[in-house]
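=== Structure Prediction Worksheet ===
Name of assembly: unnamed complex
Input type: mixed (protein and possibly other molecules)
Chain count: two
Listed entries:
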Amino acid sequence: MNIRHWVRPEVLDMAGYQPGEQPDAARPFIKLNTNENPFNPPPAVLQAWADALDFGRLRLYPEPSARPVREAAAAAYGIDAAQILVGNGSDDLLTILLRTFVAPGECVAVPEPTYSLYHSLAQLQGGRFVGVPWDQAWQLPVAGLLASAPKLLIIARPNAPTGHAVPLPLVAELCQRTTGVVVLDEAYVDFADDNGLALLRDHANLILIRTFSKSMAMAGLRIGLAFGPVALLEQMHKVRDSYNVNRLSQVAAVAALEHLADYQPFLQTIRHERQALTVALRQRGFEVLDSQANFVLARVPPGHGGGRWWLETLRAAGILVRYFGNDPSLVDHLRITIGRPEEMVRLLEEVDRVLHG
Amino acid sequence: MNIRHWVRPEVLDMAGYQPGEQPDAARPFIKLNTNENPFNPPPAVLQAWADALDFGRLRLYPEPSARPVREAAAAAYGIDAAQILVGNGSDDLLTILLRTFVAPGECVAVPEPTYSLYHSLAQLQGGRFVGVPWDQAWQLPVAGLLASAPKLLIIARPNAPTGHAVPLPLVAELCQRTTGVVVLDEAYVDFADDNGLALLRDHANLILIRTFSKSMAMAGLRIGLAFGPVALLEQMHKVRDSYNVNRLSQVAAVAALEHLADYQPFLQTIRHERQALTVALRQRGFEVLDSQANFVLARVPPGHGGGRWWLETLRAAGILVRYFGNDPSLVDHLRITIGRPEEMVRLLEEVDRVLHG
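=== Predicted Assembly ===
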């Protein structure tokens, strides 16, 4: 017997999703590579966490469906708790979506480039993955997405790694025209000008997902939310692990949801820094897409190294950014997370040092 | 379009695994229904948690492979960190195992009755589930398990809900004779007389799984460990979510692993109470299997109600136990978690009240 006999061929043949580098705490990198929030949660939230931590109950299983989180989210977002499913991060929700709706051989369609985990999860499920290039000016390729009669369509809005957000009416059109289920991945939506929550009322085949890893500064705690029709969520509940969200993260998520307004100042700061960085990089010869997220995608200027060279040059200077060299359309691009103002100053100093010696 | 078009038939047609009742904190039940530890972790562990909680880093993603946990577990159990994979509870590990090794239509074989989640996960994966009755005197039905040429075999040892532990040489024989992968689910092994760790040296197709939800009193934190050959674990890493174990649970697990000896006193107490409860229930007319776990399976005495009646009678008295009425072989049985000594006294008082009015 050997491993080829034991392991599913889809798993054997895939490389596996590669997350961005998570350096040791001991190494003082400026970390602009995985779109974390550079600020801690607001003091009121941290205090609520400290107050709510009850070590005396951690021996007990958590509430299986994370009901306290669903109820707090229902109050915060004005929908019903039954329309919410909580995941161990939004990656868990994406896994659940693939396993609920996609049988082996069925099609998953996404506009590309986008979050590459969608491709990995489709492979894992034995689905047929169809990546459709964005239309001109990064528009949603509605016809192209529909052409393969997909069972599941996933639109990241704002998209990663481009940062752009397709118009909501095109998402609505996609929901109406497809026979499949549409997932609107709103991981970065708290940094954007609008969101798709209102679309839920009109579409029985639309599921939104959110994460607390970006705007809510809780990447370490693994909380994601899915919003969608009760009939679909009931099926997804069968697929998720019974106790997928631990007690401490449930406590932390409730406290965060009860203090949403306190997050606004640093969300504003990040939007402001995003605009400032976009301008500053363009002045230095980078091509930068307008972004609605907490990162920008920047094409490096000609005349120096390519994307990988910039990645390594910045890393040597203690600055981590993200590079997607496996995608031929992105070989000259860097994705740079918006950090604290002083981190943006350091980044630009380093860019100037590279450009002007 | 309707839901039958969107949802995979395997998912639509299944009921979904039903975990035991998790009552509100406000309701003062004696909770003997989901095999949690009745004691809190040792003070040294709670202190280590408090010391290690670093709210200032929760905005960052956790170490993707939970390396600190793997290293602490490697030191604690005398194996290599590369032979360990950490799950969001052992349920997560079981999901990963099914998705790594079982293609649709392939066979999953288990002796029954056992942990019913195995069946649910096999259904979810589109696998063919074969439940083989335990041999006489609860022996491992080796020939029966091999008969279906399974891709994956799962043996819970100690088994739930019976509490018995099959001899390790039979597990070794199964590993040698099967062409599939054998999973030894050791969720309850810290309450047993021996464990299967030494078998790993001799079998390239054996994976052990452990959980911190029972002996380590951390059900609320969701930590499971898989021990196995590096070649198999490498494939499982591709299947797990990139950041499946949150930061706080990683911190808590490391602290627990560094204080394993401190858990011994309450593990001893639980073993002692298990023996005392077994004797006390037998004296009262229950048939009780010898258990190696932190629960006992008891057949209720004739002349009163059946299993469901006892479940409801005890519940009305504020005592939760587990009942598996869906399994015809268990309709007259209760699974009772070993609680604190005073909880066992209350249970027996209530049993006496039922029996003698």
